[in-house]
Amino acid sequence: MADVSVSADGGFLTVAEGGRSARFHAIWLRDNAWDAQTRAPGNGQRLITLADIPKDTRIATAAVSGPSLRVTFAPEGKSVDYDRDWLFRHSYDRTQQSQPGWTAPGIETWDSGLMGNVPTGDFGDVSTSPLALRRWLADVARYGFGKLLNGPVEDGALMKVVDLFGFVRETNYGRHFEVRTTVNPSNLAYTGLGLQAHTDNPYRDPVPTVQVLYCLESSAAGGENMVVDGFRAAERLRQENPDWFDALTGHCARFEYAGEVGVVLRSRRPMIELAPDGELVAVRFNNRSAAAITDVPFERMETYYAAYRRLGEIIDDPAMEVTFRLSPGECFVVDNTRVLHARKGYSGTGTRWLQGCYADKDGLLSKLAALGAAEAAE
After folding, report:
1. Which part of the chain is the TauD/TfdA-like domain (predicted)?
2. Other C-beta atoms within 10 Å of 67: how many?
């Protein structure tokens, strides 16, 4: 049985039910009303602004009514029904995270221990089964990357992967880009050298948040793909040396790309980015695109470089990496704000042809949420 009480001044109410209790301010409740005068029934968007709500809004009365909580506001004299489960799901009356670098619910950081359990889906299954697609997208959201197997071996097949959850983000590199390398090449532009784990395009603001790499040819020995969880690397740095963690979160690095005529891309962002409440939201690490660091005070520059060096060492630690080889028709999707990717070097003879493109994580998360809502409604 639910119980509700209103503060003496009407500024907030307290609702208790089944061992749970939460307080809600009058202005918050009024702003989050779902009546037809406040929200559009079709899409849920607000029909009023905060300026349309009286500054002196307070709770006149509140009472339990079945599964709902009916609240009457003064001075409007307006009554609104709230679903109590919705209120508890959106409660802000809770202990807030306090340690800088905390990760959101549903995020699971990892290291090389994930090697035998790489999140993987089947292209045919996720293309035809909403349940299989939801499960695969949920793994990508949780771990920051995921593989797809048994896709078509055809030019442009990666676009069919993006179509599963969103839209291609076109850049100066085009809708997609070619990754062709030949072992013992006649031209060093097609080198088989390995690459350090990195995030792509840190010089963009915002960066592309999802990258797809799709394999069409793979006859060379070596060339395995490697991924590293940048969030786990940030956690290790914080545990080892909080001052170094603070240096990389508290000061901006600079990144730049000016490798083609008419293109000068620059950004100024921290290598480890936190939200104002300390949530770990992004990692940017790409030594090839790093510009001169000028936003760190003289007194902190040596500390900053020590932290930068140590973060690189953690990223390079084999205990942090998960490796896998892509065969033709296979691909992987990576959260480019979190997971660093690389490739091992080549040896012997052969070729390797991948196609890559960018997309946006909001599309992936939107598709995941919509699939979850549809499944719950069945």
Report:
1. 123-358
2. 12
The residues near 174 (Cβ < 8 Å, ≥ 6 apart) are none
376 three-state secondary structure = helix
Tens of pLDDT, residue by residue over 254-306, are 999 998 899 999 999 999 999 999 999 999 999 989 999 999 999 999 999 99
Contact 232, 320 (CB under 8 A): yes
Q: Is 359 exposed, middle or buried (0-12, 13-18, 19+ CB in 10 A)?
A: buried
CB 141 within 8 A of CB 365: yes
CA torsion sign for 97, 103, 105, 109 is: negative
* 366-372 own/partner pairs: CB under 8 Å, 24+ apart: 366/166, 367/133, 367/137, 367/164, 367/165, 367/166, 368/134, 368/137, 368/138, 368/141, 368/165, 371/130, 371/133, 371/134, 371/137, 372/134
What per-residue string of b and e applies to 288-324 under the rule 16 or more CB within 10 Å gives b? Answer: ebbbeeeebeeeeeebbeebbebbeebbeeeebbbee
Going from the N-terminus, what domains does the chain have, and what CATH number goes with each?
A: 3-89 (3.30.2020.30), 112-377 (3.60.130.10)
Residues 6+ apart with CB under 8 A from 155: 216, 355
Instruction: Return the amino acid letter for 198.
Output: H
Exposed / middle / buried, residue 57 (Cβ in 10 Å: 0-12, 13-18, 19+): buried
Q: Is residue 140 classed as helix, strand or coil in its secondary structure?
A: helix
Q: Residue 167 corresponds to which amino acid?
A: F
What is the distance between the alpha carbons of residues 364 and 140, in angstroms, rounded to a whole number?
9
Contact status, residue 251 vs residue 268, Cβ threshold 8 Å: no
Closest CA to 184 of 344, 326, 351: 351
Q: How far apart are CA 151 and CA 121, in angstroms?
A: 10
Question: Looking at this protein, which amino acid is placed at residue 105?
Answer: P
- Cα separation, 286 vs 340, in Å, equals 9
**How confident is the model over 348-374, as pLDDT tens digits?**
677 888 999 999 999 999 999 999 999
